[in-house]
Amino acid sequence: MKTAKYRKRCFDQIEGIVAENKALCEEKTTEMSAQEERLLDLNRWLADKDRERRGQSCILSSCM
Fold it and tell me: Does 51 reside within a domain?
């Protein structure tokens, strides 16, 4: 009887750890997705700024 209780308690602990691990993995995945989206937005912004800068430098060099 003690063995069955011990076994059940161990399995319950394992299930709790697995559930917690799954929740942490989902949270981390969400964080990484948000960070990736921010990086994509930053890359787009930098590309726009670069095109803008190159456009202005072409206009300035043609004036000279």
Answer: yes
Q: Which residues of 21-47 are buried (b: 16+ CB within 10 A; e: fewer)?
A: eeeeeeeeeeeeeeeeeeeeeeeeeee
Q: Does residue 62 fall inside a structural domain?
A: yes
Answer yes or no: pTM beyond 0.70. no
User: Which range marks the domain in which residue 57 is found?
Assistant: 29-64
Query: Reduced to 3 states, what is the DSSP secondary structure of residue 1?
Result: coil
Q: What is the chain's pLDDT, residue by residue, as a tens digit (64 residues)?
A: 789 998 999 999 999 999 999 999 999 999 999 999 999 999 999 999 999 998 877 665 665 5
Amino acid identity of residue 61, one-letter, is S
Is position 39 within any domain?
Answer: yes
Q: Look at the chain and report how many structural domains it folds into.
A: 1
